From TrEMBL:
Keyword annotations of the record: NADP, Oxidoreductase
Residues in NADP-dependent oxidoreductase domain copies: 18-266
Organism (species): Planococcus lenghuensis
Residue positions of the active site: 51
InterPro entries: AKR, Aldo/ket_reductase_CS, NAD(P)_OxRdtase_dom_sf, NADP_OxRdtase_dom
Entry-linked SUPFAM superfamilies: NAD(P)-linked oxidoreductase
Site, Lowers pKa of active site Tyr: residue positions: 76
Gene3D superfamilies recorded: NADP-dependent oxidoreductase domain
Family: Belongs to the aldo/keto reductase family.
Name this protein carries in UniProt: 2,5-diketo-D-gluconic acid reductase
Residues annotated to bind substrate: 109
Record-annotated membrane-spanning stretches: none
Amino acid sequence: MTKENTFTLHNDVEIPDIGFGTWQIPNEEAYDAVTVALKNGYTHIDTALVYQNEENVGKAIKDFDIAREDVFLTSKLPAHMKGYDETLRTFDGSLTNLGVDYLDLYLIHAPWPWDDIGKDCTEGNIASWKAMEKLYKDGAIRSIGVSNFSESDIQALLDACDIVPMVNQIPFYIGRDQKNLLEFCKQHNIVVEAYSPLATGQILNSPEIQDMATKYGVTPAQICIRYCLEHDTLPLPKSTNESRIIENKQLDFTLSPEDVQKLDAMQDVRAK
């Protein structure tokens, strides 16, 4: 499933193994942040309609001296949008916002609305997925997937639809390894993308992580991002600070199996 610097999806589309996340980056800051990321070698950019920054994400890609086919661009169907026609219409809106004529990856952002987490939206998810299958078959999207989906949420799509999701984007970081979900995705050749690999910064002050960073001569953030790669998940670090954007991609080291096990054994150390 992986080779150096890329993951290969089950439809043979290659995706760069570190993405630049844009969650919580306001539209007015997104242009500069994405430009800095592109300048420093990122070729995988992740956004979503609900981030309200698609316009400037797309403008930054267009204005930068890089061919569109050399950037892997992801966006997402809002979690509350469920249904066939709604999905087609919303997808077209994202293309317009981004100023592109295709996406490399399109995801259902969550199986339920964010203001009603856990609601059974199986019927709506299936309808949305069938619309995404159409867009994929029509060539408007190179790959399709889901986000925040559990095993049962994914199984519902497998039971009712034709195409197995290529990606499941989930929160994954030291202290939240989601072993069962990772194993389920692996069994179905679904690449797991790890969003919030730094737990929005809340695990960087962990003494264990800081000690390990000292041992390897790297930063706590680099340990956290490398941990995701050691578990064959694709990290999506986010920053608006150029030095951190550069640092987050400098991962030319590996963690020993023993140190991975130590990190696996950690409990969720986010600030309470």
